Amino acid sequence: MKILITGSEGLIGSALTKRLENQNIEVIGFDKKFTEGHPFYGDILNQNLLQLAINECDGIIHLAAVSRVIWGEKNPDLCWKTNYEATVTLLEKSITSDKKPWILYASSREVYGNPSVLPATEKTPHSPINIYGESKAAAENAMLEARDSGLNTAIVRFSNVYGSLNDHHDRVIPAFCKAAATGAPIRVDGSKNTFDFTHIDDVAEGTLKIINLLCAGEKNLPFFHLTTGKQTSLEQAANLANKAGKNQSEIREALPRQYDVPHFCGDSSQTQRILDWTPNIDIEEGIKRLTALFQDLVNEPLWAIYENS
To answer: What's the predicted TM-score (pTM) here?
Structure first.
C-alpha cells in the first residue's frame, strides 16, 4: 500500500506520515517544502509532477492548500487556484490513472461560515464568508461529483487544529503558547470569539481511522467532523497559555478581524459512532503541552532559526 500525502510537511501531514509509516504503509510525500529523500516536492499547481505522484499511489490524503484564512484574503486568486482548481486537477488525473486511488479530502469548518445553530452538524449548509471557505466548499462539491466517475472519495472537516511545533508560529494557539513560553505579550484579536480547538493527536488518530476504512474498500462514506463539540473563547485560551507560562505575559486585546468567523463548534457524534473515536485532549491540557514544548525549544540552539521562520 502506497499513500500519497499532499502537503506532507505541514502540521497534519507530518503527524500522519509518522503514524502511517509505523503501520508499515509507504508514504509518498508531496510538498513545496523540500525534504531529503522525498521523491516529489513542489507546488501542487505543478500538473506534471502531480501526475507522476498520482501514478505511484493507491490512496491520496489531500492536505495541500493555501491553508489559512488570512493568506486567502491577501491573495484570493492564488487561494482559489490552489484550493479549488488544483483539487479538480488532482481528481481528473486520478480518474484517468490506472490505479484510480481513493482520496481523502481535508476540508474545514470555514465552509459553514456563521452557522445559525451550534454545534454545527455535517448537514449544516455551506455558507462561507471568505475566499478560503469558498474554495474549500467548491472543492468538497468536486469531491462528491468525482464519485460519479468511479473515484472513492471522502471528506473530513477540521477545526482549529493545534498542538505541535511543526506549525505556523503566528497561528492563534501557537502564537499564544510561544508568547507565554517567552514572557512576551499575548495579542488577542477578538477576545470573545469562540472556536472548537482540536489537538493534533486526536485529529491524527481520527484521520487514521478514516484512512483504514478507505483502505478496506468502504465507499460513499459520510462527512466526518474531527471536532470536540466544545467552544473556547480566545480570551480563555490566552489565559490558559499565560497560566502554563507562569503568568509572565501581558494580555493585549485587539479588535476581531472582519473576515474571521466569530463562533464555531462542531458536533462530532456521528464521527464518534462510525469511527469509534473520541477526542481525548482538552484545550487546557493541549495548551499546557504546547507551551512546554516552546519552553524546551527556547533553550535549544535552533530557537533563533524557528523564531525567524
So the answer is: 0.94
